[in-house]
Design goal:
Layout (H helix, E strand, L loop, with lengths): L1 H7 L3 H14 L5 H5 L8 H21 L3 H16 L7 H15 L1 H17 L13 H10 L12 H15 L2 H9 L2 H14 L2
Helix pairs in contact: 1-2, 2-4, 7-9, 7-10
């Protein structure tokens, strides 16, 4: 989110810094500069440099303490081994079912966000507005969520920020009747949450 805001303001180096800082915590941060390159084309080298700086500092700090090779083992070697296999007997079937439950639970958000992002694409606003910075966000976040073929519900949390941003704009721009219909879908998470609370008290 910080990277999108900085990209709209033309702060290319800081866009890279945001992605680099994210990369130190989660490897999905590597896609951040690429996702926003349309907004910082005039200073793409600065964004790349910003991405490299925090990672170079971290690598130097790890090397000084003899922890660089263990870092690569723990984060990259074991990470790729973990992502390359699954314990699920039918991963595609399980993934489709879990994804369907997530989409159903957040139906109001998904519909409003889909409508807004489709509108952004049709009107070619994606090169000049903050909303456009997120156009590829759902795809990239979805790919990150299915890596490893485990489909844990928490993996889908990263889809929520971009979805909420798009949905909030979509809710505002929808006409009255479609908006009321979409808002009615908010009863789904409300009812399910209340039901879960009641069951937990038994």
């Amino acid at each position: 989110m910080a990277a999108v805001w900085l990209a709209v303001r033309g702060r290319a180096f800081l866009v890279g810094r945001a992605g680099g800082n994210c990369f130190l915590d989660q490897q999905q941060g590597a896609v951040c500069p690429g996702r926003l390159r349309a907004l910082v084309l005039s200073a793409n080298c600065a964004a790349s440099l910003g991405f490299v700086v925090p990672n170079a500092i971290a690598a130097a700090w790890l090397a000084a303490r003899g922890a660089l090779l263990p870092y690569f083992d723990q984060v990259w070697r074991w990470g790729f081994l973990y992502a390359g296999s699954t314990f699920l007997e039918h991963p595609l079937r399980t993934g489709a079912a879990r994804h369907g439950r997530v989409v159903g639970f957040h139906a109001a958000l998904m519909i409003a966000a889909f409508w807004w992002f489709a509108r952004v694409r049709r009107t070619k606003l994606n090169r000049s507005t903050c909303a456009g910075g997120w156009l590829h966000g759902p795809r990239l976040s979805f790919v990150a969520a299915i890596v490893g073929w485990r489909f844990f519900p928490r993996y889908f949390f990263q889809l929520l920020p971009v979805t909420v941003i798009g949905a909030s704009r979509g809710m505002v721009r929808l006409k009255r009747r479609p908006r009321l219909a979409v808002l009615a879908l908010l009863l789904i998470p409300l009812v399910r949450s209340v039901r879960a609370m009641c069951l937990s008290k038994r």
